[in-house]
Design brief:
8 strands, binds adenosine monophosphate, 295 residues, alpha/beta, 12 helices, binds manganese (II) ion, 39% helix
Length: 295
């Protein structure tokens, strides 16, 4: 890649995980692109949850600003009874199997949101479904984040992190068990569409060592090739832990802020530490899939 030939690949300012208002971010794809560019990002991917509706806009905005672009999405998966996120990068966003798989994965969200609202009503919080909807940019993609924003507006909590601590998570009011995609299917959709599958923020899952080993073993068995090492969700100790894991499982390493909103997100676009030099960046293997600005 042009932008990448001048410096060592691991030093590239790549941000391959973030959200727009096409899922649960608050900025438009164009505004996320501008912010990434202002922060020095050279290779960018917008990875909205279970949705590729923002890809054309994101790519166009990136290229017009002079940034290279990889298509992206973050797919919700159920593995060992827990929700795991798989980021897909560099795939063909029009591939029928991927398009259908994402549509099926999104499909249950409205029902789930209505059940969440009913559960919140039992603890005295009324109108949460309608309230959350006022924050939704894409009606197919109502998420817990939209409920969190509404509960802050309603004065129930002072910020969205408090909401997730007191509500919407396992064992708390407003949490509704949900079955997302299978790990095998999610990896398949990405790979069949020409992309690379990456385990997102593995430090967040609260798995036992055995469960985590099973996740990575099965992920690789299904054709998964990457892991997020440097992410806004990891501590510096987790950068090291997952750098070791990337080497142990022979996985490509990714880097991404998981930016959602200027006020809510503690990690801004393009501001994370570089990938450790001992790892192979996922963007090396995706060089042929990236879109570059002309000139
Ligand atoms: P959903 O896909 O509807 O289950 O919503 C998941 C989203 O909620 C994640 O992508 C995050 O944006 C957000 N989220 C989950 N847990 C937390 C947390 N503890 N604090 C803040 N945001 C969270
Ligand atoms: Mn999110
Ligand atoms: Mn995630
Ligand atoms: Mn994310």
């Amino acid at each position: 890649m042009k932008a990448m030939s001048q410096t060592a690949a691991h030093l590239l300012n790549a941000d391959l995980h973030c959200h727009s208002n096409v899922s649960d971010g608050t900025l438009s794809p164009e505004d996320v692109a501008s912010r990434a560019h202002r922060n020095g990002v050279a290779l960018w991917s917008l990875t909205d949850h279970d949705e590729v509706g923002g890809q054309a806009r994101a790519r166009q905005a990136a290229l017009s600003l002079g940034m290279s672009y990889l298509t992206g999405a973050e797919i919700s998966v159920t593995f060992a009874g827990k929700t795991v996120h798989i980021v897909g990068l560099g795939f063909d966003e029009a591939h029928p199997a991927l398009v259908q798989g994402l549509a099926d994965t999104r499909g249950g969200r409205e029902r789930r949101a209505r059940d969440m609202a009913a559960d919140l009503e039992r603890v005295g919080i009324k109108g949460a479904f309608e309230g959350a909807l006022t924050y939704v940019g894409n009606p197919d993609l109502i998420s817990r984040t939209h409920f969190a924003r509404y509960l802050v507006e309603a004065g129930v909590c002072s910020d969205t992190h408090e909401v997730f601590k007191r509500f919407l998570t396992e064992g708390k009011p407003g949490y509704v068990e949900h079955r997302w995609a299978n790990l095998r299917d999610a990896v398949d959709w990405i790979v069949t569409a020409g992309g690379i599958a990456v385990v997102a923020h593995p430090g967040r899952y609260d798995f036992s060592p055995n469960e985590e080993y099973a996740l990575f073993t099965e992920f690789k068995g299904h054709g998964g090739q990457g892991v997020e090492v440097v992410t806004g969700s990891h501590s510096p100790a987790e950068y090291s832990k997952y750098a070791d894991l990337a080497l142990e499982f022979d996985l490509l390493a990714s880097r991404g802020s998981d930016f959602h909103d200027p006020a809510e997100s503690h990690t801004d676009l393009g501001t994370l530490p570089d990938l450790p030099a001992r790892l192979t960046p996922v963007w090396e293997a995706l060089a042929h899939r990236a879109h570059h600005p002309v000139g």
